[in-house]
Amino acid sequence: MSKVGARRLEPAAITGVMSREVANFRTFWKATTFSSVLEPIIYLLAFGLGLGATLVDGVGGLEYVEFVGTGIVATAVIFSSAFPSMFGTFVKHRFQNTYDAILAAPVDVEELVTAEVLWISLRAGFYGCFPLIVAMFFGLDPAFGMLLVPIFCFVTALGFSGMGVATAATVGKIDHFNYVTTLAITPLFLVAGTFFPIDQLPDGARAAAELNPLYHLVELVRHSAFGYESKDLLHFLVLVVFAIAMWRLAVNRMEKRLID
Amino acid sequence: MNAIEMRGVHKTFEDITAVDGLDLDVPAGTCLGLLGPNGAGKSTSMRLLTGQAIADDGEITVLGHELPEEAKVARGQMGVVPQLDNLDVDVTVEDNLSVFARLYRVKDVGEAVNRSLKLARLTDRRKDAVDKLSGGMRRRLLLARGLVHEPKLVLLDEPTVGLDPQIRTELWSLIDNLRGAGSTILMSTHYIEEAQRLADEVALMTNGKIISRGKPSDLIREHAGRETAEIYGPPDRLAEAREKAEAQGLRVRPAGPAIAIVGSEKATDGAVPDDAVVRAASLEDVFVLLTGEEAE
How far is Cα A199 from Cα A206, in angstroms, rounded to an integer? Predict the structure, then answer.
């Protein structure tokens, strides 16, 4: 047996926890992939082709299908990071006692949370790219800038999966996720510049929308397709700060929940 | 040398005192049974030893490591078999083991998995998902998972709770082999027979503290004497028999539909009726006398 170190965030502990996630993911990857591919197609058909063909000609010089196709990446990211982390963490903790088993091994809460958040974010980084690929079949032109999109998705997902873990560690019952979904996730994904530009919103609403991390992801993804701008560094910085803040919050909440 | 040392350990949950000044040593290479009724503080004590609970007061040393500061290093050298089945049910038997081999930093994961499969007698089921296994197989796998890294110390938290007698016997055999191999074992249980069969020493725990400790035979001799007489009959008769026995300073405990006069060899003047069932005193007698709880 290798020696267990006392230091924080040991790679062996993190990869060990992730190996459990991989083993489990092998049993349900088909269903996850199916919904991750199909959902953006449905959104593109409904909004991109539906609205684009009937009510909206274009936005800011873009075809509406291009506008929505790049924006929906953010929707895919929040759905594939916030929900799995909320429900997955809650189920593993309260129903399956998985964390009791892991924390009986030489893994601490910080390593456990880091591994969980990393794994979900890797998945979300991958699945977040699907809408972009689907949009290409609907007319979006490929661009070299898009090669950075998995990184943008990954960093954004770090924040939302951290938020999901923190939420799961805070709520008393699984039903309470309804409040979080209605009051936080739905407004976040709707008011992110995905379906309509936020600069048309009233000043207060626009300021609030600019605080939405998804808005910054939408901007980055759109610029990856149509040309980066200098302010994209700021967008990326917002996502990094969001990711770090939510990761630390998740660790803090889980330590309170898991250690008596 | 002690594998576990707990000194004056206190742990409260709001207004409930789970562990109340616990002093407990477990010498290396021995099996100590922590016997107590539900709510005695056994599971909290186990969590304190893994660093999953932090003591409000007192000192805990496990395998020479001070807790909670060095809990992670200590956990690397101990194996934990939990009370509740927390296996990954959709995942294969061998994947359940290999994940924990990695968590425990085992160098040769394949070899550790093969050894554990053999221990759990599940080699031919290695590719099956856990939810295809019987209850007994799952329990064996849970035990093998806790031993995948060949730990120096094994914590068994109610290892056979809720199992039928056949599966319980299977588990006992595996635990006995472990004990024979010289592992240090701390086993919490509320099954008298389990403690009596497997433990070198038994510590009786109630209300968060150890109230007596020793070899089962010594505990019986010290607290229960040589014989116990069980008396069956209607309530009036049992009340009368109890009164007579207690008048002679004998200790009487409930025993399901009967009463049991403990240390009945000391009884005189018909305190033990002729139709009483006289048997050797047992650890169950000690348990009930000292904890005031019915045994299982």
Answer: 6
Kindly provide the b/e burial profile for residues B34-59, where b requires at least 16 CB atoms within 10 angstroms of the residue's own CB. bbbbeebbbbbbbbbbbbbbebeebe
The ipTM of this complex is 0.85
Q: How far apart are CA A218 and CA A70, in angstroms?
A: 7
Picking from A220, A155, A168, the residue whose alpha carbon sits closest to that of residue A193 is A220
Smallest Cα distance from B62 to chain A, Å: 14
Q: For residue A229, what are the CA distances in angstroms to A70, A193, A236, A241, B291?
A: 16, 17, 12, 20, 75
Q: Which two tokens mark A193?
A: 């510049």
- pTM of the complete model: 0.88
Which one of A2, A26, A28 has the shortest CB-CB distance to B105?
A2
Out of A88-102, A173-187, B210-224, B248-262, least confident range: B248-262
Q: Which residue of A9, A20, A26 is the best one to mutate when testing the B interface, meaning the one whose CB has the most B CBs within 10 A? A: A20
Number of A–B residue contacts, CB under 8 Å: 103
Query: DSSP string spanning B195-258?
Result: HHHH-SEEEEEETTEEEEEE-HHHHHHHHH-SEEEEE-S-HHHHHHHHHHHHHTT-EEEEETTE
Nearest to B149 among A1, A17, A27 (CB): A1
Strands A62-63 and B258-262: unpaired
- Alpha carbon of B55: minimum distance to chain A alpha carbons (Å): 9
A47 within 8 A of A68, measured Cβ to Cβ: yes
Look at A103 and B50 and tell me if their CB atoms are within 8 Å. yes
Among all residues of chain A, which has the CA nearest to that of B56? A260
Tens digits of per-residue pLDDT, B129-181?
999 998 888 988 998 999 999 999 999 988 887 777 888 888 888 888 888 88
Question: Which of A131, A124, A159 is closest to A236 using CA atoms?
Answer: A159
CA angle A208, A213, A216 (to 5 degrees): 95
Q: Rounded distance, CA A230 to CA A221, Å? A: 14
For residue B107, give the nearest of A1, A16, A258 by CB distance.
A1
